[in-house]
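ok trying this again, last paste got cut off
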Amino acid sequence: MAKPLIEVKDLTVYYGNTRALSNVNLEVEEGEYLGIIGPNGGGKTTLLKCIAGLTKYKTGTISIKDKNIRIGYVPQFSNLDKGFPITLVEVVLSGMINPKLKPFYRYAQKEKDRAYELLEKVGIKSLAKRQISELSGGEFQKMLIARALAQEPKLLLLDEPTASVDAKSRSQIYKLLGRLNEEMTIILVTHDLLAISSEVRSLACLNNTLVYHGGPEMNETILTQMYGCPVDLIAHGIPHRVLRHHHNGVHEGGEEEC
């Protein structure tokens, strides 16, 4: 049996005295498109950062089959100052910079051409010369994806890439990720349950520990374990999941329109 691309074994992570992850075991196959969902504080971002090598852990292991694999990472909160005077194409070019290079590095023409190709790939080439302060939320997220692609990754990690975008941009981003999955493995952390039903091939439900890992179809038992309260499932056209008001006030929600 072929070794999975990523193998997480008995992973436990603490921030000080707070346990963020407890005994997580997870395998991700090469070419997979995995969606990770769960409540706030459930450890989703921590798991993603551990896989990316951005968060240290003392207990457990994370093995990646190809140690030389290039990883692209799109964070939930970018440290990029939206008021900084820089254009989209310059941001994408910055994703190509080797940390060992000297200051005032001058990009080669092939790198500039590649940056424009990536902006075209994510659908915003026409905005290449625009200042990032002028971007909408969806345009900004597409730019961050283009920057992550500048590393030519075979593994793309995304943390809530549609958290602050409108419905049209959200749909465009999911379609983009579906196309990118033809070229690379994708792990997507999201609160958007519509994404789970529309594109992902497998699902991991995380609430400090792994509650479920399998196909993208969920049931009430899985969601109750994950959110700690009863959950109703309502489908409109394509299956997606909705939380309704509970008497204990834990969750409140309504039907979504497709």
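PB: full thing came through this time. The longest strand covers residues 18-28.
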